[in-house]
Amino acid sequence: MVNMSNDMLSQEEIDLLLKGTDDMDNDYEFDNIITEMEKDTLGEIGNISMGTAATTLSTLLNKKVVITTPQVTVTNTGELSYEYPIPFVAVDVRYKEGLEGSNVLMINVDDVKIITDIMMGKDEIDIDRELTELDLSAISEVMNQMMGSASTSLSEIFMKKIDIAPPQSSEITFSEGKETLDVLMTDDPIIKVSFRMVVEDLIDSELMQLIPLDFGQSIVEDLHGKSEDFMEDEIEVDEYVKPDDTNISGIAENIGENKKMEQSLNIEKEEDLKKEHVVVKSPEFETFDTTVEPNYDESIDLVGDIPVELTVELGRTTKRIGEILSYGPGTIIELDKLLGEPLNVYANGKYIAKGEVVVIDDNFGIRITDIDKS
Q1: What is residue 263's predicted lDDT score, i.e. its pLDDT?
Q2: Pure H helices in the chain
Q3: Is 234 exposed, middle or buried (0-12, 13-18, 19+ CB in 10 A)?
Q4: DSSP string, 294-341
Q5: Among the listed residues 50, 34, 153, the one whose alpha carbon sits nearest the alpha carbon of residue 98
Q6: Cβ 92 vs Cβ 167: under 8 Å
Q7: Are strands 203-212 and 163-164 parallel, antiparallel or unpaired?
Q8: Total number of domains in the chain
Q9: Do 363 and 224 belong together in one domain?
Q10: Are 219 and 99 contacting, i.e. CB atoms less than 8 angstroms apart?
Q11: What pLDDT does residue 180 have?
Q12: What is the pLDDT of residue 178?
């Protein structure tokens, strides 16, 4: 609100007026940078890739995940720094095959903590704690799985293999990102693709994908180029020429000649069939009154020298990721086998027998006690 009680404007009021003018100029400028076709294409690409990524995240968290249809806008680093002064977790995703470029995914810090706690199997979610290296490692692996599955979807769209390098995560503000992230190191326009990510009643926030302008436009060109090549390869359009009165009679004559020729060929085929003499008789099969038992012992020598890996399983157990990460020297892991219970023996991974542990000199051995007959 502008103070009208005196002729002087405060510095805050001046900043607000200037900010409003800059916003209108930037909005007008940004609206003309990319076309509606490019926006729609990037939005559809994001919709397909994030749909696949949501399925992957749902599998990792064992919870329902919904990522909504994206909104595509154009902004720059200055605008992002002003709109989002709080820290975010930036996940830098670089393409190493199929596409040349990188993009950054910005995730709320609290969302990263929630995702980590779910993966660690914690009963209570703690968002008041400090962000740790474990959180950054967890979200890097989550994004590696999500964007890896998204790359598979993109491979089908672009009809070529697309793959990413392992993502790198860091906690930064947009101002700090100017020093570390390639996407934010320039004042050039940036394509922002915004998604709403909902994980049951735990997460309901914005997920941002920042794409350099030239990279985003090259993706659109690549995709439309593939579509045009596909149309040229699959569809051939013959030029249509409307016949005039002078050649209609010629076309009719050709049709009549073709019909006469077809009738003549049919008559010749019928005559040829009449000339052929087909002899039909019942088949004769050899009868076998005696059965010879094959001797397999002679052929076993053919495979006798093939090496087979024998494995003895001491026992098994299931632990959560959080428990495994807490392991250290001296940790004791309890298995499902009881003392004195026979151990399973496997040949190339297939169960074949049970046995008991013996000691031969200084080595362990296994004495077979039962052979699997199946």
Answers
A1: 59
A2: 11-31, 36-61, 77-83, 109-119, 133-158, 174-180, 213-234, 245-275, 321-325
A3: exposed
A4: P--TTGGGGTTT----EEEE-------HHHHHT--TT-----SPPTTP
A5: 153
A6: yes
A7: unpaired
A8: 2
A9: no
A10: yes
A11: 82
A12: 80
User: Phi and psi of 244, rounded to 5°?
Assistant: -95, 180
Q: What is the mean pLDDT of each run of 10 residues along the chain (374 residues)?
A: 50 52 48 82 89 90 90 88 86 90 91 92 90 91 90 87 90 84 84 92 92 90 67 44 46 52 58 57 61 55 74 86 83 84 87 88 86 80
Shared domain check, 154 and 29:
yes
The domain in which residue 322 lies consists of: 305-328+335-371
**Do the domain assignments include residue 249?**
no
Structure-block tokens of residue 369: 């006690």
β-strand partners of 105: 91, 209
Identify the CATH number of the domain in which residue 186 sits.
3.40.1550.10
Selection from 61, 83, 63, 65 nearest residue 73 by Cα: 83
- Cα torsion 223, 226, 227, 228 to 10°: value is 120
Q: What are the DSSP calls for 87-119, one per residue?
A: -EEEEEEEEEESS-EEEEEEEEHHHHHHHHHHH
Residues 108 and 164: their CA atoms lie apart, in Å, by: 23
Out of 233, 266, 289, a domain closes at 233
**Residue 79: its pLDDT value, please?**
86
Residues 6 or more apart from 355 whose CB is under 8 A from it? 312, 342, 343, 345, 366, 367, 368, 369, 370
